[in-house]
Amino acid sequence: MGVRAQARVDTTEAIKQTARRHLAQDGPNLSLRAVARDLGVVSSAVYRYFASRDDLLTALIVDGYDALGANVEVAEARQPRGDLAARWFALGRAIRAWARANPHEYALLYGSPVPGYAAPRDTVEPANRPVLVLVSILRDGAASGTLTVNDRLPRAVRADLAQLIATPEFADVSPAVLARGMTAWAQLFGTLSFELFGRLTGAVTNYDAYFEYQLKAMGSYLGLHR
Amino acid sequence: MGVRAQARVDTTEAIKQTARRHLAQDGPNLSLRAVARDLGVVSSAVYRYFASRDDLLTALIVDGYDALGANVEVAEARQPRGDLAARWFALGRAIRAWARANPHEYALLYGSPVPGYAAPRDTVEPANRPVLVLVSILRDGAASGTLTVNDRLPRAVRADLAQLIATPEFADVSPAVLARGMTAWAQLFGTLSFELFGRLTGAVTNYDAYFEYQLKAMGSYLGLHR
DNA sequence: TTCACACAGAGAGCACTGCTCTCGCCTAGA
DNA sequence: TCTAGGCGAGAGCAGTGCTCTCTGTGTGAA
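Structure tokens for the assembled complex are given below, as produced in the milestone run.
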């Protein structure tokens, strides 16, 4: 890589770095000018690297998904393959740990979408990384015969799930298991969002215990028994 | 009420009305100046009625909670008292219907909290209205002996729930039932947020069927059988 | 080794925002 | 009747995102 290209990569990274810091400190209304000021540079210079504030935000979102995905992957990979429950717990805990460490980034990824912002294509692949970890657990459970749930599904739901299972990433998972997986997934992020967005203040004080309990409940619901 | 007081109420309502319209059309970055312009008034005039943009947003949030709460209450009240499952379905469907009709308001209420915004006390009571509808279902189920779930709860979780049950609104609900209620609640809003925030695009096409199925799954999880 | 050129940053500027302050009008209510 | 106070207008401040033009300089080709 040429010197100039390297410099471009470096400053791009520096901009994202300070933008992330601003995000963590001042919340989601990220000011491009403030970031530029922090870098000792005039605001228009930043536009050499990001076409707009939304572009910068998108870059942060992609990085966020990747960071979360990487965290989740290594945490889950540390568990013995055969212990599906342990893998599920590791998955859930890793998501929560990352979310609590980066609450504003979490809000960016999983909160209400930013103004006119439509998630660009670049974000969907990294966004799927944590999902694929869950799917790998479900697939292994199906293969080993551990996951035995077999609910009746409405025709329309079954059709959508069949479409999904036709893709290579979701192959070999039964519709009923996948349906429960999506239930648990929504529950997981619902619980986490409740916690991080302050919707449980006054009701829950011990969030660790609460989350563990919910995780266990959903683990059982999935049919993952220790 | 004097003429002046009446006029004040009227313009306050007019401001909120157009603000709501702007919210629905242009998304969450509500511009006070644009609202003022729309009312044929200079921006500083609006400050006679709302101390800040955040104050106006708070008013909209309170109204939103109240509108949602009212919707949910009447929908649930229409069901026969003894049919707990029907009441649960009515509750869930009413929430979704309102959310889909007012997606930006839903995002305001249940999405990531606005910038430096800390939910003022005025919002917590209306925010609880939908919750109390669920609690009434759980209470009736406990009283009639229909709800029989009795999971073991971790000590810390049980302690938090006991605190909650000590309040009059939650009286007579068993900790185990309440725990499942909170699980289902998080699942419900998780599913709804996934739908409204576009997190299911590519996976689900028939959202009605999908939501119905999730609602039914959580109804069963709560122990509400038809 | 030389040198054109493209790239990065500076700076001015536009249209917009939230919010403040001051100035008057005008009427509601004592 | 008459005044205190409510209310809108208007100017202004500091900030925002974004655009455009200008210029120095380092790069990579000749």
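Chain B has a mean pLDDT of 94. Chain B touches chain A through 53 residues (CB under 8 Å). Further analysis is deferred to the final report.
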